[in-house]
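Suppose you are handed a protein chain with no further information: no name, no annotation, nothing but its sequence. What can you learn? This example shows the usual starting point.
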Amino acid sequence: MRALLRAEGVAEALARVARVCVPEVAEKCIVDLMLEDGSVQRIEAVHVDPSKAENMTQMKRYAPRAGHPVMDVFASGRPSLLSTVGPRQLAQMASDATHLAFLRRFGPKSLMRLPVILRGRTAAVMTFSIADSPRRLTTSDLHFAEQIVARVVAALESGAA
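A reasonable first move is to predict its three-dimensional structure. Written in C-alpha coordinates, the prediction is:
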Protein backbone atom coordinates (compact mmCIF):
# COMPACT_ATOMS: atom_id res chain seq x y z
CA MET A 1 0.00 0.00 0.00
CA ARG A 2 2.86 2.38 0.82
CA ALA A 3 4.21 2.38 -2.76
CA LEU A 4 0.70 2.89 -4.13
CA LEU A 5 0.09 5.88 -1.85
CA ARG A 6 3.48 7.37 -2.65
CA ALA A 7 2.73 7.25 -6.37
CA GLU A 8 -0.64 8.95 -6.03
CA GLY A 9 -1.60 12.32 -4.66
CA VAL A 10 -3.44 12.62 -1.38
CA ALA A 11 -6.85 12.94 -3.06
CA GLU A 12 -6.37 9.89 -5.23
CA ALA A 13 -5.01 7.86 -2.32
CA LEU A 14 -7.92 8.73 -0.02
CA ALA A 15 -10.47 8.01 -2.76
CA ARG A 16 -8.91 4.59 -3.27
CA VAL A 17 -8.93 3.89 0.48
CA ALA A 18 -12.63 4.84 0.61
CA ARG A 19 -13.41 2.32 -2.14
CA VAL A 20 -11.46 -0.39 -0.30
CA CYS A 21 -13.11 0.35 3.08
CA VAL A 22 -16.63 -0.21 1.74
CA PRO A 23 -18.09 -2.66 2.85
CA GLU A 24 -15.45 -3.65 5.43
CA VAL A 25 -16.03 -0.59 7.62
CA ALA A 26 -19.47 0.68 6.57
CA GLU A 27 -22.00 0.76 3.72
CA LYS A 28 -20.89 4.19 2.54
CA CYS A 29 -17.80 6.36 2.65
CA ILE A 30 -17.49 10.03 1.74
CA VAL A 31 -14.15 11.84 1.59
CA ASP A 32 -13.96 15.62 1.96
CA LEU A 33 -10.63 17.30 1.21
CA MET A 34 -9.49 20.70 2.48
CA LEU A 35 -8.06 22.69 -0.42
CA GLU A 36 -5.22 25.21 -0.18
CA ASP A 37 -7.69 28.12 -0.25
CA GLY A 38 -9.57 26.72 2.77
CA SER A 39 -12.57 25.46 0.81
CA VAL A 40 -13.68 21.85 1.05
CA GLN A 41 -14.15 19.57 -1.94
CA ARG A 42 -16.04 16.30 -1.76
CA ILE A 43 -13.69 14.01 -3.68
CA GLU A 44 -15.29 10.60 -3.22
CA ALA A 45 -18.62 9.07 -2.30
CA VAL A 46 -19.00 5.30 -2.53
CA HIS A 47 -21.74 2.85 -1.57
CA VAL A 48 -21.56 -0.90 -1.10
CA ASP A 49 -24.52 -1.31 -3.48
CA PRO A 50 -23.53 -0.46 -7.08
CA SER A 51 -27.18 0.31 -7.90
CA LYS A 52 -26.86 3.36 -5.60
CA ALA A 53 -23.98 4.87 -7.57
CA GLU A 54 -26.19 7.68 -8.90
CA ASN A 55 -27.20 8.61 -5.34
CA MET A 56 -23.55 8.81 -4.37
CA THR A 57 -22.79 10.95 -7.42
CA GLN A 58 -25.50 13.34 -6.23
CA MET A 59 -23.98 13.26 -2.73
CA LYS A 60 -20.65 14.46 -4.17
CA ARG A 61 -22.40 17.63 -5.38
CA TYR A 62 -23.08 18.72 -1.79
CA ALA A 63 -19.70 19.76 -0.40
CA PRO A 64 -19.80 20.76 3.26
CA ARG A 65 -20.25 24.44 4.01
CA ALA A 66 -19.96 26.51 7.19
CA GLY A 67 -22.14 24.99 9.88
CA HIS A 68 -21.94 21.45 8.47
CA PRO A 69 -20.82 19.02 11.20
CA VAL A 70 -17.89 17.80 9.11
CA MET A 71 -16.43 21.29 9.48
CA ASP A 72 -16.26 20.68 13.25
CA VAL A 73 -14.02 17.68 12.59
CA PHE A 74 -11.82 19.78 10.30
CA ALA A 75 -11.53 22.43 13.04
CA SER A 76 -11.03 20.12 16.03
CA GLY A 77 -9.06 17.30 14.43
CA ARG A 78 -11.12 14.89 16.53
CA PRO A 79 -13.34 12.07 15.27
CA SER A 80 -17.07 11.99 15.90
CA LEU A 81 -19.50 9.08 16.17
CA LEU A 82 -23.27 9.30 15.83
CA SER A 83 -24.68 5.84 16.45
CA THR A 84 -28.10 7.19 15.52
CA VAL A 85 -28.62 10.08 13.10
CA GLY A 86 -31.90 11.87 13.64
CA PRO A 87 -33.82 14.66 11.89
CA ARG A 88 -31.86 17.41 13.67
CA GLN A 89 -28.53 16.02 12.47
CA LEU A 90 -29.84 15.64 8.91
CA ALA A 91 -30.93 19.29 8.97
CA GLN A 92 -27.42 20.33 10.10
CA MET A 93 -25.92 18.47 7.12
CA ALA A 94 -28.33 19.87 4.52
CA SER A 95 -27.34 22.87 2.45
CA ASP A 96 -30.90 23.55 1.25
CA ALA A 97 -34.41 22.05 1.16
CA THR A 98 -33.61 19.84 -1.85
CA HIS A 99 -30.53 18.46 -0.12
CA LEU A 100 -32.53 17.83 3.07
CA ALA A 101 -35.18 15.89 1.12
CA PHE A 102 -32.38 13.85 -0.47
CA LEU A 103 -30.82 13.13 2.95
CA ARG A 104 -34.17 12.05 4.36
CA ARG A 105 -34.46 9.46 1.57
CA PHE A 106 -30.86 8.32 1.22
CA GLY A 107 -28.94 9.77 4.14
CA PRO A 108 -27.17 8.03 6.98
CA LYS A 109 -28.85 6.32 9.92
CA SER A 110 -25.50 6.00 11.72
CA LEU A 111 -22.15 7.61 10.96
CA MET A 112 -18.63 8.37 12.06
CA ARG A 113 -16.27 11.07 10.83
CA LEU A 114 -12.51 10.68 11.04
CA PRO A 115 -9.93 13.40 10.47
CA VAL A 116 -6.98 12.66 8.22
CA ILE A 117 -4.22 14.72 9.81
CA LEU A 118 -1.18 15.31 7.61
CA ARG A 119 1.75 17.43 8.74
CA GLY A 120 -0.16 18.69 11.74
CA ARG A 121 -3.33 19.82 9.98
CA THR A 122 -6.60 18.16 9.10
CA ALA A 123 -6.23 17.62 5.37
CA ALA A 124 -9.39 15.56 4.93
CA VAL A 125 -12.32 13.97 6.72
CA MET A 126 -13.54 10.47 5.95
CA THR A 127 -17.20 9.87 6.80
CA PHE A 128 -18.30 6.26 7.12
CA SER A 129 -22.02 5.58 7.39
CA ILE A 130 -24.78 3.00 7.52
CA ALA A 131 -27.97 3.80 5.65
CA ASP A 132 -29.78 0.65 4.63
CA SER A 133 -29.13 -2.02 7.24
CA PRO A 134 -30.35 -2.04 10.85
CA ARG A 135 -26.71 -2.11 12.02
CA ARG A 136 -25.41 0.92 13.92
CA LEU A 137 -21.80 2.04 14.13
CA THR A 138 -20.14 1.63 17.53
CA THR A 139 -16.99 2.74 19.31
CA SER A 140 -15.40 -0.54 18.15
CA ASP A 141 -16.08 0.49 14.54
CA LEU A 142 -14.60 3.91 15.28
CA HIS A 143 -11.41 2.39 16.73
CA PHE A 144 -11.07 0.06 13.73
CA ALA A 145 -11.48 2.97 11.28
CA GLU A 146 -9.01 5.07 13.29
CA GLN A 147 -6.41 2.31 12.83
CA ILE A 148 -7.00 2.34 9.08
CA VAL A 149 -6.70 6.12 8.90
CA ALA A 150 -3.52 6.05 11.01
CA ARG A 151 -1.93 3.59 8.58
CA VAL A 152 -2.97 5.70 5.61
CA VAL A 153 -1.52 8.83 7.25
CA ALA A 154 1.75 7.02 8.01
CA ALA A 155 2.00 5.83 4.41
CA LEU A 156 1.20 9.27 2.99
CA GLU A 157 3.64 11.06 5.26
CA SER A 158 6.47 8.63 4.59
CA GLY A 159 5.85 8.99 0.86
CA ALA A 160 5.80 12.78 1.11
CA ALA A 161 9.01 12.98 3.13
